[in-house]
Amino acid sequence: MLSPNFIIALRFLTAKRRAMAMSLSCIVLGVGLFIVTQATTSGFEDYFIKTILGTNGAIRVEDKIQRTMRSIAAGRWGSLFEIEEKDGPKYIEGIDNPKQLIRGLRQFPNVSGISEVLTGSVAIRSSFKSDSAKAYGIHVVDHLKVSDLGSQIVDGSLADFRSMPAGALIGRELANRLQLAVGDSFELIYGGESHRYHVAAIYETGVSDIDRVRVYLHMSQARALLKKVNGASFLQIGLKDKDRAPEDAEHMQTVLQYRVRAWQDREKTWLGVFKALRISSAITVSVFTLIAGLAMFNTLAMIVMEKTKEIAILRSMGYTQKDISHIFLWQAGIVLAIGATLGVLVGATITFAVSRVPLNITGIFKTTTFIVSWSIWHYVAAVVTAVVMVMVASLVPARRAARLEPGDVIRGTGQ
């Protein structure tokens, strides 16, 4: 059964239909647009993270840490002693004992896969053109566990790469520049010596810095090309829970005494850009909700002025100040509930429509449509923002109405 306060609030609302409609429309727009902007910015950020994890892994173990020592003279005889310079560690490039490190890394419970990678800058030459590239020696089975390379193949197949000892995987941009197709041969030149390979497949990550330089080779072929019979450039690690990468990286670095970098650290700049976009868009669209709060404040203030006699009658009938305050807060709550519900529906509908809009992007990732993120927290944040702004704006006129006394209204001194 509806309370008398709620029924009276509904009747007061009908007195200012146009003003309430304006507040309602602003709430709908504020909630809806908040959801859409957060869904799109978060969607692109999530897709960027997925691309990065699928190409460079969650964690990289790169260079050995060498703590520096200083010799300091002490005493008048100039005796020497050494102290550790903790603020300036040196890094020895590469990994000398990858097999041993891999055995140690497998003991970490969050590790899902480890790939040994050997890299080196090379020159690449086709029948049409020469260019610079970077050779990546990998064990295919291991690398597929820490990357999305298998799903990034756009021409040819990984099966051909596995069966071809001199096979290679090259990026789409590099293949286009050198006019290479699957089955074509090319040369990689390192240290003045050239080695011939065949294009087994062409991949495309959508990340220009990767697709235009990386050439994946079998580890044995990369060792022969780069003249490195052992060791590795880095270990690429996949994690079961990617969000724990910073903690795992810190622990690994302490235990292994190798430089370990989590994906959040490697991509700090781009993650900061996405965060700034998400916050700025939320602030921008919240203006609609702020307008709704101001409109609600104005409308309720006008109702208080126009309904002083009715309020006096209610007070004389035994309604307390708390009851009067609740009546006006109920009015704001009714409009807010309707507006938030419609706003959520509008936001979900527009988000779905936007996800179908064609959009061709390459550079930091590749997509052909708008990327959206479906998260319940976007809806919660939008509704909470509207509730806070509208209800806070409604408190002042509600308290003003509650302070009206019947005697003041009769004497004409009610404020």
A few lines on this structure:
The protein has 415 residues and is an alpha+beta fold. The protein has 15 helices and 13 strands.
Account of the protein in words:
The structure is a single chain. The protein is built from 15 helices and 13 strands. It has a 6-stranded mixed barrel. A two-stranded antiparallel ribbon has the order 12-13. It folds into 2 domains: 4-54 and 270-411, no CATH class; 96-232, no CATH class. A hairpin with a 5-residue loop joins strand 12 (358-361) and strand 13 (367-369). The chain is 53% helix and 25% strand. With 415 residues, it is of the alpha+beta class.
Notable traits:
415 residues, alpha+beta, six-stranded mixed barrel, 15 helices, 53% helix
Helical fraction equals: 40-55%
What integer value in Å does the Rg equal? 33 Å
Indicate the proportion of strand residues. 15-25%
**Into how many domains do the coordinates divide?**
2
Number of strands: 13
Cross-sheet strand order for the largest sheet: 3-4-9-6-8-7
Uncertain stretches: 71-81
Form type: elongated
Largest sheet, strands/sense/barrel? 6 strands, mixed, barrel
Helix/strand order, N-terminal first: HHEEHEEHEHEHEEHEHEHEHHHHEEHH
Assign the structural class, choosing from mainly alpha, mainly beta, alpha/beta, alpha+beta, or little secondary structure.
Answer: alpha+beta
State the separation between the terminal residues, measured CA to CA: 33 Å
> What would the average pLDDT be, to the nearest integer?
85
* Tally of contiguous helical segments: 15
